[in-house]
Amino acid sequence: MLQYVIWDVNPEIFHIGAFSVRWYGLLFALGFLIGMQIMTHIFKVERKPIAETDSLLIYMVVSTIVGARLGHFLFYEPEVLLRNPLEVILPPFAGLASHGAFIGIMIGLWLYSRRQESRATGQSFLWVADRIVITVALAGASIRFGNLMNSEIVGRPTDVSWAFVFMNNNEYAKIPRHPAQLYESLSCLVLFFFLMWFWNRRKERTPQGSMMGIFLIWVFTLRFFYEYIKEDQVAKEASMYLNIGQQLSIPVVLVGLFFLIRSYRNPAPKLEDEPKTINS
User: Fold this and answer.
1) By Cβ atoms counted within 10 A, which residue in 16, 77, 164, 171 is the most buried?
2) May I ask which residue range the UniProt record assigns to the signal sequence (predicted)?
3) Tens-digit pLDDT profile for residues 93-103
4) Do the beta carbons of residue 182 and residue 120 sit within 8 Å?
């Protein structure tokens, strides 16, 4: 039996003067960089213009960060946004909401796919969304592990043998707690491997919308239940029957169910019916 995990990891890797490199920032960036390598592989296999992965990366980075930042203030601290809108773009950039990131990514992918459809590259919104969720699952695992390195988004007190004592969290230090960040990180990692296997079996024949549906159902159903073992993000959640994260997760799961059901009512076209594209 474990005697709890004493988590005393320094969130900073190194610093030079006022400039510092932190585990969270490194893991956040790695999620995007490795994800784009995966998308490049997918583009090669499905004969899409590989040069477009650079454009897709820009859309993903901007839409994820803007969506996550705006989502945090809109969902959790609207009073701060009304008082000082510049808080969204000012350091230290504390506060990123996964539900906001989801909305931002969907808007970004829609804009990207509109551009691609006008150029006849065979990248519809659902085609891109189904494949990008593979990389988003991996990025989610990386980012949540970054939260663990930061000793933030901690779980509630528990006496389980694998509980973590977050020594660097002044608010919740020295009490054994659920490592909620690790739970979510591992859940996303499992989803990444499943989605990669799912795509590898079907590739071009993947029912459009199916992988996005699976992603949304898995991530946000688990998010709903993980909220029961996590500390509230903001004080006002203490008086709520369902906290903000749970309330936001319900409609996202319903969206996932819609796309999953739709995908099997509208199976993927035969390969000979699909538009052919040439790598560039």
Assistant:
1) 164
2) none
3) 667 888 889 99
4) no
- For residues 101 and 220, give the distance between their C-alpha atoms in angstroms, rounded to a whole number: 13
Give the position of tokens 């773009």.
89
Residue 46 makes CB contacts below 8 A (sequence gap 6+) with 203, 204
Instruction: Please state whether beta strands 19-22 and 5-7 pair in parallel, antiparallel, or not at all (unpaired).
Output: unpaired
Q: What pLDDT, on a 0 to 100 scale, did the predictor assign at position 141?
A: 96
pTM: 0.88
DSSP assigned state of 113 = H
* Cα 161 to chain centroid, rounded: 28
Structure tokens at 16: 């030079």
Q: What is the pLDDT of residues 145-190, one digit of tens each?
A: 999 999 999 999 999 999 999 998 888 878 999 999 999 999 999 9
Neighbours of 173 (CB within 10 A): 15
Is the separation of the CB atoms in 51 and 116 below 8 Å? Answer: no
Supply the DSSP string of 101-136, one letter for each residue. HHHHHHHHHHHHHHHHHHTT-S--HHHHHHHHHHHH
β-bridge mates for residue 166, sequence order: 7
Q: Note whether 129 and 212 are within 8 A (CB).
A: yes
Q: Write the CA distances from 27 to 85, 165, 240, integer angstroms.
A: 28, 22, 33
d(CA 202, CA 166): 43
Decide if 227 contacts 243 (C-beta within 8 A): yes
The dihedral of CA 211, 214, 218, 220: what is its sign? Answer: positive
Q: Residues annotated in the binding site, as ranges?
A: 144
